[in-house]
């Protein structure tokens, strides 16, 4: 009888994937339970270190008060984001990539 290595590796890989999924599910359940049992502010502050760093900058804010309804607020906001991504790809034997991704926006 000839056995393939995949018959031995396959169940191990599936076990690892299932275990990781279970840990993620348990973590989400614990967070939801903690949120329901305590104040929202305490939960957010406890998980603050898990948030990624988003180094964005606000360049300017302008608030309009002409030609708007009483229940509206119209603002122009300049938001700039400069990330530190590093994406590398290969296409037909050529190497390409993206570095220092930047986004600029004039919101309205």
Secondary-structure blueprint:
Blueprint: H1 6-37, H2 40-46, E1 56-64, E2 74-82, E3 86-91, E4 94-99, E5 102-107
Antiparallel strand pairs: 1-2, 2-5, 3-4
Q: Can you walk through the features of this model?
A:
- This protein is an alpha+beta fold and 108 residues long.
- The protein folds into two domains: 6-48, no CATH class; 52-107, no CATH class.
- It contains two helices and five strands; from the N terminus they run ααβββββ.
- The chain has helices at residues 6-37, 40-46; strands at residues 56-64, 74-82, 86-91, 94-99, 102-107.
- A three-stranded antiparallel sheet has the order 1-2-5, with no helix packed on it. Strands 3-4 form a two-stranded antiparallel sheet.
- Strand 3 and strand 4 form a beta hairpin.
- The protein is flat, with a radius of gyration of 24 Å.
Largest sheet: 3 strands, antiparallel
**Large-scale geometry:** flat
Q: If you average the pLDDT, what whole number results?
A: 80
Poorly predicted tracts of residues: none
Compressed to H and E, one letter per element, the order equals HHEEEEE
Strand order of the main beta sheet, please?
1-2-5
Q: What's the helical proportion of residues?
A: 25-40%
- Radius of gyration over C-alpha positions, nearest whole angstrom: 24 Å
How many beta-strand runs?
5
Q: Could you give the distance between the termini? A: 70 Å
Protein name: Synaptotagmin SMP domain-containing protein
Keywords: Membrane, Transmembrane, Transmembrane helix
InterPro entries: Extended_Synaptotagmin (IPR051634), Synaptotagmin_SMP (IPR039010)
